[in-house]
Write a structure and sequence with these properties.
Number of helices: 9
Radius of gyration: 19 Å
Distance between the termini: 55 Å
Number of strands: 0
Helix content: over 70%
Length: about 180
């Protein structure tokens, strides 16, 4: 941690509002992006971000200068997101997909779509699908880790991910078909 971050942490730990504001301003845009990716609306993302920063300030004494401060803050933000969705019961148990294996066709599809189209399609997913999709495809968690974070089974995580991919594939295929017709 550089001396500027060390000063921010010390000031926040003393309860100095100026340092709390500086810490917030330094990380709010990046963390808002994380919250927004998981949320259905800007308002929901802002609420989660606010809750996350309350947690950050209250847990800052636990930060041990191991790794980056930004990484530590990001973990708290992600934990706040997962807790929020777990409390709202957004995860549906569909069917156990313990034996699910992704086909090459499924794997290639998402690699070929426009990033902005994909982000918009992800935002339109149900909260459960969106959460598991982001955790697995974006954050890189395993289904076992997702299950532990969200209090679900690994099979449910796989099911949610599979459902999200299927919906995204259908949405993006339709969207690309519309664009192809319009451009002719």
């Amino acid at each position: 941690m550089n001396s500027g971050e060390a000063d921010l942490v010390k000031g926040c730990l003393k309860g100095d509002r100026r340092y709390q504001e500086l810490l917030y301003l330094k990380y709010c845009k990046k963390m808002m992006g994380v919250c927004y990716r998981y949320s259905k609306s800007k308002e929901e993302a802002e609420d989660i971000l606010q809750d996350a920063f309350i947690r950050i300030y209250s847990k800052l004494h636990q930060y041990r200068n191991e790794g980056s401060l930004e990484g530590w803050i990001r973990r708290i933000v992600l934990s706040t997101i997962y807790d929020s969705f777990r409390k709202k019961n957004h995860l549906l148990v569909l069917n156990d997909m313990s034996d699910y294996e992704e086909t090459a066709e499924e794997s290639d599809f998402l690699d070929q779509v426009d990033v902005e189209e994909l982000i918009q399609a992800i935002r339109e997913l149900s909260p459960g699908y969106r959460t598991v999709f982001n955790m697995y495809a974006v954050e890189g968690y395993t289904h076992k880790e997702i299950a532990a974070h969200l209090g679900i089974s690994a099979g449910t995580s796989k099911s949610q991910y599979s459902g999200a991919r299927r919906i995204l594939q259908n949405k993006l295929t339709k969207y690309n078909s519309i664009l192809t017709v319009k451009s002719k």
